[in-house]
Each structure stands twice: as C-alpha cells, then as structure tokens.
Design a protein that fits this description.
By secondary structure, the protein is of the alpha+beta class. The chain contains 10 helices and 15 strands.
C-alpha cells in the first residue's frame, strides 16, 4: 500500500503548529491503539502509520526535509514505525509511558499502581416521620464498614511476620507479555496488583488486612428535608488503601407518610370534611396543622371541593427557611343516619326552596333548556 502524506495521516494542514500536530496525533492514536483493538491488524497498521507521521512532523529538521523532498529526500532517521521514539511523552517506558499519557495512568508503572487509593463510599437508608422531616431532628445512624485490622496493623500478615514481594511481578503489581513494540501489560494474577503476597495470614482478618465493624454517628436532619434526599458524611466510608483518603457515607432519607397531610413542595395538602349545615350557613372551624389547630372561617354556601389557603402553615424551605402554606380542600358530607323528625324538617326545608338557592341547579337547568331547544 502506497504511503499517504504525513499531514493527511494526522489530519492537519501544512501550516499546522507543533501543538496542533501533537494534539492531532494523540487524538487519533487513542482511536486505534492496538491494545484497545487486540488482533485487529488494520488498527495496528494505522497506529504504525500515525507513529511514523508524528515522528517526522514533530521534529523541526525532519519536517523541513519532508516538506522539501517528500518521501524521496535524504534519510530522515528514526527507523520509521519500528524506530518511533516515545521519549517525547515524558517517560522511558515505551508503551507504558504513552499509555499513561493517553489514558491517565490506568496501565501505568508500579509507582502509579501502588499509589494511594480512595476508599469506597457507603450507602445507608434512614426512615424518619413526617414531623421529623418538617421540623428537623437528630438521629443516630448505625452502619458497618471495613476498618484496618488492629492485630496485624492492616498488613494481613501474622504478627511477627511481614508480607513478601510477589515472585511473579517482582513487586510491580503487573506482568508483561509480548515483545518489541507490542507489549501487553496486565494486573498480576498472583498478588492481584498489590505487589506483595501474605504467606502467614493474620488469624483475625484472615489475611485481608481489614475487619468489619459496627459504627454509630449522630446525624442532624435539617428542617424541610424531602423524601429521597441524601445527606453526606465526608470520610465516614471505607478506609483508603496505601494512605489514600477514606470514602464518604451517603444517608438517603425516607419519610413515612402522614395520616392527614400530603406534601407538595413546601405546601401541605389537607382534605377535611364539613357538615351540610356548616357548608350552607358558614362556620368557624378548627383546622389541624403540624403544630396546633388554627381557626378558619368557612363562608356560607361553600361547595364540596372548595379550597382555602392558610398562609405560613406549611413546611419550611430547606434553602430559605420560609414556610409554605396549608391548602385546605373541604368536602361536604351528607348525613347518613337521620331521625324521622330530622327527615321531616329537611322535607319542609326542601319544600320551602324556590330553586334560586341552588346556583348549580340553575346553571344545569339552563344547559338542559339549551339542549332541548336546539
């Protein structure tokens, strides 16, 4: 296959700066790196082509000769793809160094592999009452986490002994296979990347270096918290490895439903029954709130489904502390068990009605007439 123009290979113009060439090379090398495309000959050849183009265009003298003579000019050195120099990536490890540069050190050397690692985060669920969520409270949270074994000091080795350097990887935590340019780096199967093995295990932790312990902490629940919100306690998660920081503890709040109230943001919703007489004549009623009952005037002629807003009787905002409202929806109850005397009084009341007292009936009657007149 005929060679392609180096500028075309990298996808840059002939006036491209050194920074643009470097950026283009790294971007394209990520896309076809052989280690990400095992057994893909096309990706391997593409990667070699990119290396050769970058070797020339990233060197000012080689680039000048290429611009003047092209492929037929004097030998530019470097051995083409086979002689690509990785030193421009700030390391001496060939494949290892370039992979560190591209992918953040995930396959890097033993120094990176055996460096500090942050501990895992923990998740905990805490159930509280509706009132506790509304007004805030303090709760004790119990949870389990792994901690360094006191017996062996976290080494996993029996007291009086020490972990030994892994004979497979010689302490690097990695093993390499292949040769030349195509070197594959993998986590050591013997020590699982730790670089050390424990022959005489600690009896307390069975060689793991950590034990499971129950912990408790006091948690302040802020007023106005909602169901499903998570609170974070920094550093209360699993301990880190090799001097790394501990993880965090996430406590997810579950709020039990209330028997009377429902929540809509910072507002409280309440459905309350009133009698036929209260609705017809109007009345002052006691409306329950989360703190104490408050008086509210129901106007005469109130219908089922009418809503009234009681300002400041809701839940405090988690951000501002300002309370929402209580939205009261009334339902007019029809009496079920009436004495004969009460029934007779209602019949007399009904006979005394002219129909004008019922606004709904009037509207319905107009609709009925319209229906039959059309």
């Amino acid at each position: 296959m005929a060679k392609r123009d180096y500028y075309e290979v990298l996808g840059v113009g002939k006036n491209a700066t050194d920074a643009e060439i470097k950026s283009a090379y790294r971007k394209k090398a990520k896309e076809c790196h052989p280690d990400l495309h095992p057994n893909d000959k096309t990706a391997e050849e593409r990667f070699k082509e990119l290396n050769e183009a970058n070797e020339v265009l990233s060197d000012s003298e080689k680039r000048a000769r290429y611009d003047q003579f092209g492929f037929d000019g004097p030998q530019m050195g470097g051995g083409g793809a086979g002689g690509f120099d990785f030193s421009g990536f700030g390391g001496s490890g060939g494949f290892e160094s370039i992979f560190d540069t591209f992918f953040g050190g995930g396959m890097g050397g033993s120094g990176r592999r055996n460096g500090p690692v942050q501990g895992n985060d923990l998740q905990q669920r805490l159930t509280i009452s509706f009132e506790e969520a509304a007004f805030g409270c303090e709760k004790t949270v119990e949870f389990f986490r792994s901690e360094s074994c006191v017996t062996c000091g976290g080494s996993g080795a029996k007291p009086g002994t020490q972990p030994q350097t892994c004979p497979t990887c010689k302490g690097s935590g990695q093993v390499r296979t292949g040769g030349g340019f195509m070197v594959t780096v993998r986590t050591c199967p013997t020590c699982h990347g730790e670089g050390k093995i424990v022959k005489d295990k600690c009896q307390t932790c069975n060689g793991t270096g950590h034990v499971r312990k129950k912990r408790t902490l006091t948690l302040r629940i802020p007023a106005g918290i909602q169901d499903g919100v998570s609170l974070v306690k920094r550093g209360e998660g699993e301990p880190g490895l090799r001097g790394g920081p501990a993880g965090d503890l996430y406590i997810t709040i579950a709020v039990r439903p209330h028997k009377l109230f429902k929540r809509d943001g910072n507002d409280l919703l309440l459905e309350m029954p009133i009698s036929f007489t209260q609705a017809a004549l109007g009345a002052e009623i006691d409306v329950p709130t989360l703190e104490k009952p408050v008086k509210h005037r129901i106007p005469e002629g109130t219908q089922t489904g009418a809503q009234f807003r009681l300002k400041g009787q809701g839940i405090a905002s988690l951000k501002t502390g300002v309370k929402g409202d209580l939205i009261l929806t009334v339902t007019v109850e029809t009496p079920r068990k009436l004495s004969e005397k009460q029934k007779e009084l209602l019949r007399q009341l009904d006979q005394s009605m002219t129909g004008k007292e019922y606004e709904g009936n009037k509207t319905f009657g107009e609709k009925l007439r319209d229906l039959f007149n059309n």
